[in-house]
Amino acid sequence: MLAKLKPLFYYLRAKYLYKWSDRASFEQWQERRILRHLAFVRQHSPFYRELWADQPLAEWRQFPLLDKGIMMENFDLLNTAGISKDEAFSVALHSETTRDFAPKIGNITVGLSSGTSGNRGLFLVSEQEQAQWAGTILAKVLPRSLLQTEHIAFFLRANSNLYQSVQRGRLKFSYYDLLIPIDQHIATLNQTLPTLLIAPPSVLSLLAEAANLKQLAIHPRKIISVAEVLDPLDRQRIEAAFEQTVHQIYQCTEGFLASSCHYGTLHLNEEYVHIEKAYLDEAQRKFVPIITDFTRFTQPIIRYRLNDILTEREGLCPCGSIFTAIETIEGRCDDLFIFPSTEDSVVGANGKNVIVFPDFITRAILNSCAEIVEYQAIQHANDRIEICYLLKEGASRMQAEESMTQSLSELFQKLHCQMPEICFSHYHFIPGIRKLRRVERRVVQ
């Protein structure tokens, strides 16, 4: 009985108790929580105990940084549950192969990341952490109170005990496997009529198209984009089809990092995760997050550098939240386009190269042609990019390509980088096992 009440406790805490009137008092509270958490981690994780040596906990911002490679290499000693990487991988891979995501190691849920960066990561979650996650995410995403009946439709590559834990009381959870053709899911959706729709934007776009064709007859109270970057093109299409704001959840193997307020603005979940900003371009407000999750005990995440590019919102959100507002999640640092510079010293240049952020490419393409339905920009070499695209029926490909070439040429001239060769091809992405990356760098070093 107590176990069933835990998610309710965390729901109520996130919904009603975690409130701060000013940033200063919140940061004092956050610092106390972090120091208490670090004391536990030092005592129970051999890896962190050795990594931090005898440094005072108050100096935790100077502790060494981690990334996915370091975490996976030291997985056995890093986690506090005594679970080996081989054992965890065995359980996770068996679940993915059989599509049975129920097995645990004792009371520990094991998950596996999608491996977008080519390096799949493991995550471990205890029953208490699972209860906290369930209560917290319900408080942040449910369109109404917990007392109302909701049917959640959740599209993702893999299911998990973590996701199933939100199903309780009046909440019904339905998992939709992305490996199954979307047409089959549409028939099921029309039968179940979900009130909360959660899916990657590439899938939401397909559902929006089905809704426009009168093939999909659902009217969810809330739509949430997950797992992929929410591109302006997808956002516009989804919002037009369903006549509502698309919300977002920013979650990865390393934690539940951000969620939308009722205005649709992403806010960092700083009551659970401390975020340091490693700026790539402070003037453009673009940074890489370094996260310290002070609620995860089984697999501690301390000063962990992600590979994502975030743009901080300029100005306060109308919702009044004291938590950092995010304008966009652009994608991965791996997908920064890099071109030779036309000058010896320019702003944004890295040596003799110029770094171009993904949203610059996106805006140049979308602003050039209103007839674009789908697109993907791929850098194959430092002097060659490919634009895969689909136009509205009847639109001229010649005119579209001329407009995109002109727009990109103006961008590269402004950034003082050499104009690459641009080739064009038909758009061919199909949602499923692979995440959509609208702007992707595939240069082989």
TrEMBL record:
Going by the entry's taxonomy, the superkingdom of the source organism is recorded as Bacteria
Q: Which PANTHER family match?
A: CAPSULAR POLYSACCHARIDE BIOSYNTHESIS PROTEIN (PTHR36932:SF1)
Protein name as annotated: Adenylate cyclase
Give the originating organism: Paenibacillus psychroresistens
